[in-house]
Amino acid sequence: MAEPLSAQRPVPLAESELYFLIARYLSEGWCRRAAQVLVQELEQCQLLRKRLDWEGNQHNRNHEEFVLSSKHVAPDHLLQICQRKKKKKEIPPSISRVASLFGAGRQSLLLTAKGDLI
């Protein structure tokens, strides 16, 4: 078996999250077969963000485990981000070093100026 792509080149966090959000979006819409193929590719190439244990060791996760650990990420999260960017309602993050698409609460890209989630 060939070496996974992630072993050849580290996958940037934003890229890994984007792949997950695309698969999540497709899985609840009209393109479920495309989502299945994408999920297979993500798992085979180990492109999903790894989990850290309490000792700091990294462990691969499958798509289902990733969905369960990201319950705050709705299937239409990517669509909501796109709609928000289209409206140009940019809210600066409360912690400048946090650049995750999965932000929850005050770190969410879906936070409005009033502090409410879209």
UniProtKB/TrEMBL annotation:
- Record-annotated BRWD/PHIP N-terminal domain positions: 4-85
Which GO biological process entries does UniProt record here? cytoskeleton organization; regulation of cell shape; regulation of transcription by RNA polymerase II
A single Gene Ontology CC annotation of this entry is: nucleus
| Coiled coil regions, renumbered to chain | none
Q: Please give the Pfam families that the UniProt record associates with this protein.
A: BRWD1_N
Q: What is this protein called?
A: Bromodomain and WD repeat-containing protein 1-like
Biological source species: Rhinopithecus roxellana
